[in-house]
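Re-run with default settings, no changes from the original entry. Doing this only to confirm the output is reproducible before filing.
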Amino acid sequence: MWDPELAELKHRKELAARMGGEERVARQHATGRLTVRERLAALTDSWQEVGALAGRAEYAEGRLESFTPSNVIIGRAEIDGHRVVVSADDFTVRGGAADAAIHEKQILAERMAGEMRVPLVRLIDGTGGGGSVKQLEEYGRTYVPYNPGWDQVVANLGRIPVVALALGPVAGLGAARLVTSHVSIMVKELSQVFVAGPAVVEAGMGESLGKEELGGWRTVAAAGTVDLVAGSEQEAFALTRRVLGYLPRSAWRLPPVAGCADDPGRVSPELRAAVPRDRRKPYDMRAIMDTVFDEGSVLELGRRHARSTITALARLSGRPVAVLASDPRFYGGGMTAQGADKTTRFLDFAETFHLPVVHLVDQPGFVIGGAAERAATIRHGARALAAVYQSTVPWASVLVRRVFGVAGAAHRPHHRYGLRVAWPSGDWGSLPIEGGLEVAFKRLLAEAGPDAEAMKAEIAARLEAVRSPFRTAEAFLVEDIVDPAETRPVLTAWARDAYEVLEPGPRATTRP
């Protein structure tokens, strides 16, 4: 019998379960944060730990005297029926910074998830890097920086869903691990994300900023560093479950089709009044989304970032889709440099996990002016246009209102089939009449002298007569004009057909 060894195994697991000890656990709770093991219990439905015995041990006369567990916990789990791998930082052990075992455990988690083709969830709390400069005395040397296992981190972007949660102050390599994911989540007031914390910033840059000012949720959500902001750790775990529900286990699978009680043929008469007749008036694009897609299924990503561009996950009769839209309340819905980058990253995400794209189009064009030129808007915009054309998933475009210029041309990949319908409110061209008339007829108006305003009104009336979307439909330059109330039935029928032609398999590696 191996009773002594089995007793030793039990004892060591009990020591590991104590994490950093009672004092440090109490300190963690005092900050309003759960411990890593409390987080695992709240997030997962079942849990099988890998590497619980890893850590630092001290011996006296061959007997174990003390044991400090590794400050990263990894294992296999189930979340709402999804098999996943979880890698979780333990802030109670050296503030989540690296120790002798952390790199190998993190690398194993990345490799295990990627090669077993199951989603990876990272619970990040701390730096996850090399720790304090105090260690230089302990090591007796310095080192050339490198990120062990980063090839696996990058490779996973193209093969499995990666969801990362910031659950405390996250800096340096921890922040890099957070954003090298498909969906990143942070918790209001509880977590902060930065390249370097306030003390390092003040020492290096002379800036005196508090944690919230430097890397709090308002700052980083607006910057696009994180995709979702939760009000609590429990809400962050609920969001993680929800995100995983839209995605396949890996790039080798198709997205999971869920049951749906919402009638796929549901007609919504309220959509007929969704867009005002006054083209300068904004409206609520999100209300349209909530009406068209399955009830309660819209999950917006990056809402506080690049606010004229909307990206979301949703379902049509239970089938997950990627939704791209514009918010006319910001820059009229125009595409900014940040909005273009947001679009590119989102389309990479949709392509990787075979999510058909629904584009609700109200695009007046690239935002213009000095600030837009200094932001290199056209370069970022051209990259977004390339992402549209490189996509291979089925595509449906609903021309809700405006479609103008180069940015408007990005409403679908024109070189292949895609569903395209317009609402009667559709308005399109190279430039809006309101902005292009004076430029196009500048010389004629100048020659008109005091009659210029009357001539301008006359020209505008002539142009308005040919502005009707029905004239475009006559020439088959838009395939169909539909009653807005019937948009959902049109899209649910398209989604059914789209899922028939989806082909699983990895695409080109995506970018974080």
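Residues 269-430+468-501 form a domain with the 2-enoyl-CoA Hydratase; Chain A, domain 1 fold (CATH 3.90.226.10). The radius of gyration is 27 Å.
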